[in-house]
Design brief:
It is a single chain. The chain is 47% helix and 14% strand. It is of the alpha/beta class and 268 residues long. The chain has a single domain, classed as NAD(P)-binding Rossmann-like Domain (Rossmann fold), CATH 3.40.50. It has a seven-stranded parallel beta sheet, sandwiched between helices. α1 links the parallel β1 and β2. Mean pLDDT is 94; it is low at 260-268.
Length: 268
């Protein structure tokens, strides 16, 4: 599908690697000017550098998405550079540690909720007024299949991604009449650092055992690739999705469609 974002401005958090980087590159390839945001300065600069090497227009802003002033700064930087924010991929997130709820570390819980819920909220809080003033814009929040079903051993992550879907639906209903759309993408296991971190936590001696178990629970037989999530995000930000708001799009190779398969790979 050829999606043309020429003249549009795309703002992406968590853009230093994984899904965020893939989506930043996809937007740039489709003609958008890109503002890449991440607390990982080296990774974020690398993302924007690749875009510029490929002839695109991009800049990087370092930010901790849990801090309102830093979120305001990345919004202001986008506006100062390009004058608008047409697409916002509210993507930054962390997985936390694997532990059952009865044993989960409180500080780690706060960290995951801080990035995955407050970070998404602050993005909405400071980008929505811009889009409402423009009377146009599309936002995609990164939720997860963990926002739809349980994953034993990941209480903070699951709670956070359920919350992202709630924020998405609430914001969508508030701004639809003003020309602004808000949707969520719900990836299953994606071939990025995050899933490999979980594999290593579950079986430090041989993470590949977990890889095989996870992939066997996916009808497609493999992990989703970051580019495949990026394609869904671009679709949701495009005019092809003009009637879609308040929705969550599952991109998981069929994993949630098979019911209990989602939780099988998370057991000891």
């Amino acid at each position: 599908m050829d999606l043309d974002f020429t003249g549009k401005v795309a703002l992406i958090t968590g853009a230093a690697n994984g899904i965020g980087r893939a989506t930043a590159l996809a937007f740039a390839k489709s003609g958008a000017k890109v503002v890449a945001v991440d607390r990982d300065s080296a990774g974020g600069e690398a993302t924007s550098g690749v875009i510029r090497q490929q002839g695109g227009d991009a800049r990087f802003v370092a930010a901790d998405v849990t801090k309102s002033a830093e979120v305001q700064n990345y919004v202001r930087t986008a506006l100062d550079a390009y004058g608008a924010i047409d697409c916002f991929f509210n993507n930054a997130g962390v997985e936390g540690k694997w532990a059952y709820t009865a044993e989960y570390d409180e500080d780690m819980f706060d960290t995951v909720i801080g990035v995955n819920v407050k970070g998404v909220f602050l993005g909405l809080r400071h980008v929505l007024p811009v889009m409402l003033q423009q009377r146009r814009g599309a936002i995609v929040n990164t939720a997860s299949v963990a926002g739809l079903v349980a994953t034993p051993g990941m209480p903070a992550y699951v709670a956070s991604k359920h919350a992202v879907i709630g924020l998405t639906k609430t914001a969508a209903g508030e701004v639809a009449r003003q020309g602004v759309r808000v949707n969520a993408v719900c990836p299953g296991p994606v071939d990025t650092r995050m899933i490999h971190s979980l594999e290593a936590q579950l079986n430090p001696a041989d993470p590949s055992v977990v890889t095989r178990r996870y992939q066997s629970a996916i009808p497609l037989g493999r992990y989703v690739m970051p580019d495949e999530i990026a394609s869904t995000v671009l679709f949701l930000c495009s005019d092809l999705a003009a009637a879609i708001t308040g929705a969550q799009y599952v991109v998981d190779g069929g994993r949630t469609a098979t019911g209990g398969a989602v939780t099988q790979g998370m057991q000891h």
